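Intended use. Records like the one below are meant for learning the mapping from a protein sequence to its folded structure. Do not use them to infer anything beyond what is encoded.
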Amino acid sequence: MAAAAAAAMSHCHRRRPLCDSRLSLLAVLLVVLAVAGVTTAVRLPTSTNPCDSDPCGPNATECTGLGASSWNCTCAAGTELVGAQEGQPYCMSPGNCDDGTRDGPCGVWGECTETATGYNCTCDPTAILVSPFKNGSQTCILDPCDSHPCGPNATSCTPAGFSYNCTCAAGAVLVGVQEDSQFCKPP
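Structure written out for the chain above:
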């Protein structure tokens, strides 16, 4: 019976305190009846509308269910739709550290700090800031020069977005430019 009460509670929208209090009362009642040995039959509400769980988030003006596990979101002005290509649409405020992804907009190698106009990424020591990234935002990626891809005949390696550029020592020859895997070959 407790499982039935839990299932009923999951039906409610998380911002409906009245629904939560009614279902909490139902759960307590079911437990009391079970302890007293009373057998009951309760018809619990069921829903096949994915919008009941508010999958579009607080920045959505509308959620349209397209079956049991698919939906479309209409986002409020000033917010953007993310995750639609992955089948998990969500309305997000641009420049928000909570972008609906597991690691946030700064990625696994950065820490996100919200500002009055958006957010800033502080990258780990082995990572670099890529800005602009998608839609003018920023993110942290591993420094492509950290593994010394240019080799011992290079005088420098300069990160270039998700790639790098090598500067070779006198006499060394830069190879692999077309393949995006530059290396300074010895003379």
